[in-house]
Amino acid sequence: IWGGGALVFAVKEISENLHILPNITLGFQIYNSHFSASWTYLASMELLSTQKKFIPNYKCDSINNAVAVIGGPNSNVCLHMAPILDLYKIPQVTYGSAPVLHYRSQADFVQQMFPKSTYQYNGILHLLLHFRWRWIGVLYLDDDNGERFVQNVLPFFSERGICFDFIQRLPRQGFTGELQKLIEEGLATYKTIMRNTSNVLLIHGEIQTMPILRLLIAGSVYLDMPSKPDDKVWIMMAQMDFTSFAFQGRWSIDFLHGTISLAVHLKEVLGFREFLQTRNPISEKEDGFIQSFWENVFECFFSSPTSENPSERTCTGFEKLESLPGSLFEMKMTAHSYSMYNAVYAIAHALHHIHLLKFKQKIMVKRLRKSIDLNQYHWQLHHLLRKVSFNNSAGEKISFDQSGERIAGFDIINWITFPNQSFLKAKVGKIDPYASSKKEMRQLHTQPISLCNNNCLQGFYKRKKEGKPFCCYDCLPCPKGKISTQKDMDDCVQCLEGQFPNHAKDGCLLKKITYLSYREPLGFGLTIFALCLFLITTLMLVIFIKHQGTPIVKANNRNLTYALLISLMLSFLCALLFIGQPRKLTCLLRQSAFGIIFTFAVSCVLAKTIIVVLAFKATKPDSQMRKCMRKPLAISIVFVCSFVQLIICIMWLIITPPFPDFDMHSLAEEILLECNEGSMVMFYCVLSFMSFLALLSFTVAFFARNLPDTFNEAKFITFSMLMFCSVWLTFVPTYLSAKGKYILAVEIFSILASSAGLLICMFLPKSYIILIKPELNNRDQLIRIKN
């Protein structure tokens, strides 16, 4: 009745409008298709008959002939009408869902008030993605449109990240004998819906789907099955307007609460509500539908001579339509009735355009003054319908694209039900495919979650579950050094350089710049250790200078002894260059200074060893060996060895000098400010040359191990070189495996340990004799020991 009301209201407005079809009266006939193919074919043939007789394909006169047909409310009705209307070139304007026509000639005569279906499907997809509903169930009507939806649209949804808990077929309404089968299959489908875990159900159907759903809901209550939970959201297509069988009028509609549906965009038409209030069986006696409708919704009967039941409630005809609950009758214009309203106006504007063309051409002037036989030109009407464009009484522009589909968008409706069986359809958004920018969608007050499993929180990433749909996954924590800043990330990402993951691995923190400083325990301890060794060496130097006239000092080449002690003092001080903030000067000096100074120290040891060997080889007073033992030999050995190391260091500083640098990767949470050695090859060349001198000293000392003990330092030199080689052989793998400040600590310890080894092995025994056992430090004692 709401569709018929919109039709009658539109015709009434056009008849009263002097600017559209002046002096021309539009008429209409309404036929019931009963959602059946046979009834639709019958109604189509009756449209082609005249004189109130079923005589198809016979034209008795030029009046009361159909020039256009408004078909609906579903696609099947339009599809069944199209072959017959195409034969007579009668255009059809559909106000329901768009049919899929198999022949181009039929499509040319079909005009659709329903926008492109792709716009609706894209809108639903954006709606699902907007609310992050990726785990959904699908219920579709068992017809051709439903099958096309499953085969063509659902794969597109899947490509965009939507996966399906279930895809169930809803049985369609058939003959009365099939009602039991429909209920059985429907209840089985309803059990599946309630049993699954998805909280969102997408329903694809037609206008007749709603009564079937209401039947299933009522049956589930009767069979004590679980009802629809409040946290489950149903999403319905635009073609599924709210309809009911007459006997369902008082049934509960609570299941619709929170439902989201799409509807063809509409605007409120002024005067429609007032028009409906004036319609009743008394004022509209010629309307054959309104009396039957009145008896069904008001549960009464109009008195007749054949009525035999006095208990039946009698209809007065003045009952108020606005007193009916919304589940029975809506006083507002719905999306379907709005489409029918615009369809009538579209036909009227096309007819008006034909009228103007004929008038301008001044053909058949006399006949034009009497009346216009628009029926002669209905074959031209479909061309004009494609081009028609007008503003309706609500101020909305109505036009069509080249395919004959209305250019419009969809409204997103949120259903709110009330205990008195009324409902409110609140518009919460709009799908406008022609908008230049995306419009924000107002969210629902309570947004349900529909996922196969809980979201992977920040700090976790997704891993697909084997044998499950792609939206079912496990959540694993990000590996070390990576983060995830959003939910449901497919993989974790690295922090930017100079940052590190926080404890939750959901964000990055700035790394702190650090270096081995004097204030931290490690740096402070190494500094104290180096200074103590420096002071001990200084004390030994003072002791040796003070006792320089004693035999034990003179017997071991005191000049080389003094030089060796001074070089060891400087070696201990070189360790301090590795502590503190690296600067350009300290980076240039620390490796080269230590390399030259320690090479000088090892050269002194080598010279002392060679002098001791030569001293025992020169047994004769006039021997050539005695001439070689003079000072120039020792000086030459020290000078040559130190000069070679000096050349290596100079080449290093010229070619690839060390420089201050930031090490971003060695430490997870800190940036290490360090000295970049420039060339590790040159660094290992310096170490290799020192190791060569140490090995040479060890070899010479080993051959001199059997000389008399009093003058023989070979054993002490052997032990000191063994310690030196052990320290630096251990240094290399430790240096390569250590990270951060511990690399410097390893190198400082190696410098101090190798220098301290020389100090202890070479000078501690002599210091013991000088300070503790002075009676051993005299010439007679040395000679006696020798004899």
From TrEMBL:
Alphabetically ordered keywords of this record: Cell membrane, G-protein coupled receptor, Glycoprotein, Membrane, Receptor, Signal, Transducer, Transmembrane, Transmembrane helix
UniProt-recorded Gene Ontology molecular function terms: G protein-coupled receptor activity
Membrane topology: Multi-pass membrane protein
Cross-referenced Pfam families: 7tm_3, ANF_receptor, NCD3G
Main location per the UniProt record: membrane
Annotated localization: Cell membrane
Entry's transmembrane regions: 522-545, 560-580, 592-616, 637-655, 681-704, 716-736, 742-764
Superkingdom, natural source: Eukaryota
Record's GO cellular component terms: plasma membrane
Cleavable signal peptide: none
Matching InterPro entries: ANF_lig-bd_rcpt, GPCR_3, GPCR_3_9-Cys_dom, GPCR_3_9-Cys_sf, GPCR_3_C, GPCR_3_Ca_sens_rcpt-rel, GPCR_3_CS, GPCR_3_vmron_rcpt_2
PROSITE patterns for the chain: G_PROTEIN_RECEP_F3_3, G_PROTEIN_RECEP_F3_4
Domain G-protein coupled receptors family 3 profile span(s) in chain numbering: 522-786
Gene3D superfamilies on file: 3.40.50.2300, GPCR, family 3, nine cysteines domain
Family as reported in the entry's similarity comment: Belongs to the G-protein coupled receptor 3 family.
Protein name as it appears in the record: G-protein coupled receptors family 3 profile domain-containing protein
